[in-house]
Amino acid sequence: MACRFVIQEHTTPEGVHWDFMLEQGDVLTTFRLEKEPMECLADEVRAVKIFDHPLRFLTYEGPVQKGTGKVKIVDSGEYRFHDRKDDLLAFELNGKILKGDFTLVRLRDDEWEFKCQEDHR
User: Which of 34, 59, 78, 89 is 20 to 30 A from 25 via CA?
Assistant: First the structure.
């Protein structure tokens, strides 16, 4: 069964990062990425698991509460899990930018590595 995903560019007073959100039931499991989606095609990217977001963030763009900046959607689409374990998420993304097989592998605690399984260089 396909679920939805979104990547939002999150601009804050401290800089820019990207929030990668996977629809899982009634929440979006969210990882903060240090690089924009195009760079994720060629390089391993550090990802930090942050708090789950509500489903409305699948389509939301604009200011974020508590003055933590603003968000803009930069990629979205559907995904399907290939494997789902405590320390590994393997899935296929079908977005505008990110297409193909990807993994999120836990390094320690909330630190993960996001990697495309195909070389797009």
Answer: 34
Question: Cα-flanking dihedrals φ and ψ of residue 59, to 5°?
Answer: -125, 0
Please report whether residue 121 resides in a domain. no
Domain tally for the chain?
1
Helix (H, G, I), strand (E, B) or coil at 65: helix
In this structure, are residues 69 and 12 in contact, taking their beta carbons and an 8 Å threshold? yes
Identify whether the C-beta of residue 21 lies closer than 8 Å to the C-beta of residue 95: no
pTM for the full model?
A: 0.94
Q: Give me the residues of the chain with pLDDT under 70, please.
A: 1, 119-121
Q: CB–CB of 27/54 below 8 Å?
A: yes
Q: Which of 15, 22, 11 is nearest to 75 (CA)?
A: 22
Residue 49 lies in domain:
3-116
